[in-house]
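Most newcomers find our protein records easier to grasp once they have seen one. Sequence and backbone structure share a record, each on its own labelled line. Nothing more is needed to start thinking about how sequence determines fold. As an example, a complete record with its sequence and its structure tokens follows.
=====
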Amino acid sequence: METARLTPREQATTRICQVSSFATELLEIRSKEPSLHVLLIAGNPGIAAFYKDCVEALYENLGGQASITAIGHISHSQKDCEHGRLFSLYEQIDHKVDFIEQELQHSEQPIVLVGHSIGAYIGLEVFKRLQNKIKFIVGLYPFLKMNKSSVTQSAIGYIARSSLLSKWASLFASFIGSLRPSITRGIVRRFLGPSWSVTAVDAACSHLLRYNTMRNVLFMAMTEFQKLTEEPDWTFIRAQEDKMAFLFGVDDHWGPLSHLEEVK
């Protein structure tokens, strides 16, 4: 029988800060006496709210001894603060470097990067530039290169490469988001499946089903797919293996087990 939780879980809070003049959504829990700072880099969609449960669980499992911050991508947000501008993979990488240099420059605690999916690739690029600041990096279900056998990646790539199809897909997403909330939630729940948590469904309804967000999701995907046709920098990864860890999933088409063999 599971032991009941005696104290309520610490709740993550949302904060909007300006990073290099770009509005940036953060989800964070600050420790009173931190021994390290964990920076969680989102995948794509880069919506910090998707990671609420993860941030809170990390804080709890680390005994409240670490400050946890999840950072979202520019314009993957409820409001179109950047007035329709589209941001590439490398602009999002620069954004994360700027955040660390701006917000964590004077941090006395070691920084641990945790990147999910394409966030793992972003984390690796950030680590290359800031090796003196980053203590360790963890890649969760890392998307490091294209999977030619993935039908899903092929379909997303086909849409993302077409400006017209991307606009139509984004308009359709915003239409779903404009419906009565109960209808929107029902569609999202049916489309994404019952495995998605209430938190994830809420984040999809509030952030993802926005024209500006979906346009940026697809534009970033296009630039990801262009870059990740290249082989990852396996030489760098192997040279820094004592400062890295990767978690692959048996059924994850973004980071199949064949990529794990290449890491080894």
